[in-house]
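User: Structure tokens for both sequences below?

Assistant:
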Amino acid sequence: QVQLVESGGGLVQAGGSLRLSCAPSGRTGSTYIMGWFRQAPGKEREFVSALRWSGGRTYYADSVEGRFSISGDNAENTVYLQMNSLKPEDTAVYYCVAATRDYWRTDRDDSYEYWGRGTQVTVSS
């Protein structure tokens, strides 16, 4: 089974940009959907973005629409999250996720079988 590893997190000033990457570690199998969730301390985990390989359809939470952009390489099961115009409210641990089935509800955490350990994103004011 594939294991996901995130990278690219860090500290950035408000208005700045970061690009997160997610790559598989170990055996790489087929994935149908990959995406990102995030969670701040004491807060609920929330959906950020997802990419359905078939057709290349993308999905975004309202809070990041227009600022974040998801992309990836299906052949390598690799996904990226370009984050622009970052706000302090974006501060969280960002988790990469992958689904081995084509689920309709891309914003549900139980749609994804594989999770990374997370990468910290901190946005200062």
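Moving on to the next sequence.
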Amino acid sequence: QVQLVESGGGSVQAGGSLRLSCAVSGNTYRTYCMGWFRHTPGKEREEVAHINTASGATYYADSVKGRFTISRAIAWKTVYLQMNSLKPEDTAMYYCAASAAGFQDCYTQAGYNYWGPGTQVTVSS
């Protein structure tokens, strides 16, 4: 089992920055994918970014590329999402997620079995 808890959300003005943190605990043996997703009520959840823990390869949605960066602390106990040049359309509940043990296709959302409770990000214009 893997437990995830997000923090760092808040309200900022357009152009500002936030760093989200995801505290990771439990058994992460063979956890190959860590991702950030966001959701707005009434709309489908979308992937923002992910990182392959084995290869280090990263993915970013086109809407955040060049503005957001996913990274991690030693031993993968914390995963970060640095968000710069925030826009009102970035407003959402942001969730940290970890893949099921042995799952390697980090692009498939169904493979993420563990989710945090979320942290709200609101960007005003």
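User: Anything stand out in the second?

Assistant: The longest strand covers residues 18-26.
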